[in-house]
Design brief:
By secondary structure, the chain is mainly alpha-helical. The chain has helices at 6-9, 17-40, 47-52, 59-70, 73-85, 93-115, 121-127, 130-163, 167-215, 219-228, 247-263, 266-273, 278-309, 315-318, 328-337, 343-375, 385-410, 417-440, 446-469, 522-525, 532-551, 567-571, 577-583, 610-616, and strands at residues 600-601, 607-608. It has 2 domains: 14-412, Sodium/glucose cotransporter; 578-645, no CATH class. A hairpin with a 5-residue loop joins β1 and β2 (607-608). α8 runs parallel beside α19 (446-469). The radius of gyration is 25 Å and the shape is globular.
């Protein structure tokens, strides 16, 4: 059977009929779940039911949906290739998951839960003004559309090259099925299909890891081969921000990126808000953390076994079977599982499930943002709830078709895909920065937020484009061997295709930086992609505060305390009041400790005066809303605005 491997034959195995059947069943099951909820809830046209599942969803489906929203096909293909190309430093990303999800669960999710918003961007207008809200929405829409088009195209291309599945047929099928079940089934369909897809992803990865270990004579043997070839490395502690993967860049930089994903990204926050209480939302986040560590660790272990298998036959350098590192895993799966009919189909279902889950989550989030942030605030404010729900469904169909069209455009970009991947990274940082500025810095005003956000976007896009045009090195590839390729190749592929690594995709670009570059900004272009997010946040905060103080800072005493997050109260609730008081920067959060003050935060997520909070403190199922009877004071340019939300 050994002679069937591509390293001996120079050929990739093809899909069997059984593989096609299993793959088709995955798509059919996802569509069936959407249709089930469409029929079951056909008489319910409540927008909150459609977008948030009535805020009554269970912990496990929410947790698994949180898991697979950003654990896309890009990660499933890219993480193993990262180990193959570089080393295991990427495994430190699990530490960043812990940091990000603890902060998201303790600080951000309770904050939005208490505000009772459907779209996180409603907060930006409450805190600042409409212009800041629109800036955040535009960044989110561009980020999500670009990301979804890549999620749709990249895995389709990888699977097409290796398995022979028709590229455009696969791409269109994924896009249309995700569009249909999201549009007709809403949040419930998305959560339950994500649950199914999470199980398929786990089964597919487990099958590949087990069979790969068997082929290599045990995982320990594969580990030893990888260690002997310098692929096992956990001790890169260089604090230089241009170091591609060090403990600091992966844990701190990656932590900032993932905190933005789980703390303020509409797709993830919307899932958390579908839970009936803060406690259940937090539990879903922590269950999701276990799944994240498990899935990423499986991908990295598969990468170790995959490298050991191809240690002496580097396909990218010697053969014309594949032209990108993202295609290594499908080739490897066909090599080790191709003789077992059906298992390659399970693996493809795993990759497709990663794509479908990310697509449906993106569609669902956009369907909430466009009506809530771009239509109702400017026109049709008296639109009925039934009309809003129908509009959301129409938006999903439109966005689905647009995403498929953008995927076709992406296919024509060639190496420009590197810049496209980077855009998804550089936009999330400035967007996160706007929320950090508003939630934790009470002196910031709307002018500061606008200046900080626009400056951050401009700088990060400049760094991204500069790195691409100057071919700044993002890391040195580890060594490879072709001594074990035991056949004659008449048309070897000597050129490596170039992709990029933000959002957990690997870089297979061997180009080195031009020696002696005279560009004074060249060091900026070498910034590790993991440091894009914290750099963007820092720019928003620094520029935002400077401009705020120049144009007239907000007086913290005039702010509605519900719009500022009491960070130290959240992180250190047992700290003495004498220490906590000055850390609140003049914002009146003392209602947490003194029932004579006006505002308090109760267990349900509701925000109101002390008496009402005391009466609700034991009811953990209350729907979170700003209390209509509270008098509001805030520091943005339109003091009366918040009344429209109260």
């Amino acid at each position: 059977m050994e002679m069937d491997y591509s390293i001996y034959t120079g050929r990739a195995k093809a899909f069997s009929v059984v593989d096609y059947v299993l793959f088709s069943l995955t798509l059919a099951a996802s569509l069936g779940i959407g249709l089930f909820f469409a029929i079951k809830d056909r008489m319910k046209l409540d927008s909150e039911e459609y977008l948030l599942g009535g805020r009554k969803m269970y912990v496990i489906p929410v947790a698994l949906s949180l898991l697979v929203t950003f654990m896309s096909a890009l990660t499933l293909l890219g993480a193993p290739a990262e180990i193959y190309n570089y080393n295991t430093m990427y495994w430190w990303i699990c530490a960043s998951f812990v940091l990000a999800i603890i902060l998201a669960g303790v600080v951000f999710i309770p904050f939005f839960f208490k505000l009772g918003v459907t779209s996180v961007f409603e907060y930006l207008e409450m805190r600042f003004n409409k212009a800041v809200r629109i800036l955040g929405v535009v960044m989110f829409l561009i980020l999500t559309l670009v990301y979804m088009s890549l999620v749709l195209y990249a895995p389709s291309l990888a699977l097409n090259v290796v398995t022979g599945i028709n590229l455009w047929g696969l791409l269109a099928s994924m896009g249309l099925i995700a569009t249909v079940y999201t549009a007709v089934g809403g949040m419930k369909a998305v959560l339950w299909t994500d649950t199914l897809q999470a199980v398929i992803i786990a089964v597919g990865l487990f099958a590949v890891l087990i069979q790969g270990s068997i082929v290599m004579g045990g995982f320990q043997n594969a580990w030893n081969i990888a260690a002997n070839r310098s692929r096992i490395n956990f001790h890169e502690v260089n604090a230089d921000p241009t170091t591609r993967h060090s403990v600091w860049t992966v844990v701190i930089g990656g932590g900032s990126l993932w905190l933005s994903n789980y703390g303020i990204n509409q797709a993830q926050v919307q899932r958390a808000l579908s839970c009936p209480s803060v406690r259940k939302a937090q539990l879903a986040l922590f269950v999701n953390l276990i799944g994240l560590i498990f899935i990423v660790s499986m991908c990295i272990m598969i990468g170790i076994v995959m490298f050991a298998f191809y240690a002496d036959c580097h396909h990218l350098q010697f053969t014309n079977l594949i032209f990108s590192a993202d295609q290594l895993l499908p080739l490897y799966v066909m090599d080790i599982l191709g003789h077992l009919q059906g298992l390659p189909g399970v693996f493809v279902s795993c990759i497709i499930s990663g794509g479908l889950s990310s697509l449906s989550s993106g569609f669902n989030a956009i369907s909430a943002v466009i009506p809530k942030d771009l239509i109702q605030p400017f026109c049709c404010s008296k639109m009925s709830d039934r009309t809003v729900t129908i509009l959301c469904k129409i938006i999903v169909f439109i966005v689905g078709v647009l995403t498929i069209a953008l995927a076709f455009v992406v296919s024509q970009l060639g190496s420009v895909m590197q810049a496209a991947y980077s855009v998804t990274s550089v936009l999330s940082g400035p967007m996160f920065g706007l929320f950090v500025l508003g939630m934790f810095f009470p002196w910031a005003n709307s002018w500061g937020a606008l200046a900080g956000g626009l400056t951050s976007v401009t700088l990060m896009v400049w760094i991204c484009i500069g790195a691409y045009l100057n071919k700044a090195a993002s890391g040195v590839l580890s060594s490879f061997s072709t001594d074990g390729c035991n056949w004659n190749v008449t048309t070897p592929s000597a050129t490596l295709a170039t992709t990029s690594a933000p959002l957990n995709i690997t870089t297979d670009d061997a180009a080195l930086p031009p020696p002696g570059s005279s560009d004074p900004f060249y060091p900026l272009y070498e910034l590790s992609y993991f440091n894009y997010s914290p750099t963007a946040v820092a720019v928003v905060v620094v520029v935002g505060l400077v401009v705020s103080f120049i144009t007239g800072r907000t007086d913290p005493k005039t702010l509605d305390p519900r719009l500022i997050c009491p960070l130290f109260d959240r992180l250190f609730p047992c700290m003495p009041e004498i220490i906590l008081r000055p850390l609140r920067c003049g914002v009146n959060h003392e209602g947490n400790h003194d029932n004579t003050t006006k505002y308090t935060f109760d267990n349900t997520g509701g925000i109101g005066d002390s008496n009402k909070a005391m009466s609700k403190c034991h009811d953990d199922s209350q729907k979170p809303r700003l209390n209509q009877n509270d008098e509001s004071k805030n520091g943005h340019t339109n003091p009366a605005f918040i009344q429209s939300y109260l």
